[in-house]
Amino acid sequence: MWGRFDGCKGEISEVRQVQDIPEPQVVVTDYKQQKKTCPCCRKEHFGIFPQGVNAPVQYGNNVKTLSVLLCNDYKVPIQKVSQLLSDLYGLFPNVSTIVKYNAKAYEKMEAVEMLIKKSILSSLVAHSDETGIRVGGKMFWLHVMSTCMFTYLFYT
């Protein structure tokens, strides 16, 4: 059919788009350590792995960050985070590994938490509220303190 239009100039009459996300995949980076033997004394010398590469197999920062984000910002239970990483990426982090990532993130955020608390307490105007929540099947109070710049949540 198009044969009779050979030589005719065409123009785009309509554009349609399909937006999708790429197939999830794990990227594995191999770090190889060299061993060299001194020709004089026969002593073996070993290369150094990059900082943070501490085990024969470990999860990278993106896996750690995603698991902490899902647990804390999106309130996904830890078991579900483990299942999601398994379903999407074929990774199998156990619950204690994800708990460890959350604890490490909490430690790193301690200075930021203190800054938020001090900023709210020194503000001339602040909002506060509380509501009941369940944590581990038990009832607690979720407290919020906020200003136009900072929000602090905690439970008792």
- Rg over CA atoms: 27 Å
Kindly name the structural category: alpha+beta
Strand content: 15-25%
- As residue ranges, the low-confidence spans are none
Count of β-strands: 5
Distance between the termini: 74 Å
- How confident overall, as mean pLDDT? 95
Topology as a string of helices (H) and strands (E): EEHHHHEEE
Outline: flat
Number of helices: 4
Strand order of the largest sheet: 3-4-5
Q: What fraction, in percent, of the residue positions are helical? A: 25-40%
User: Could you describe the largest sheet, including whether it forms a barrel?
Assistant: 3 strands, antiparallel
Please describe the topology of this protein.
Layout: E1 35-37, E2 44-46, H1 61-72, H2 78-89, H3 95-108, H4 110-122, E3 127-135, E4 138-146, E5 151-155
Antiparallel strand pairs: 1-2, 3-4, 4-5
Question: How would you describe this structure in keywords?
Answer:
156 residues, alpha+beta, 19% strand, flat
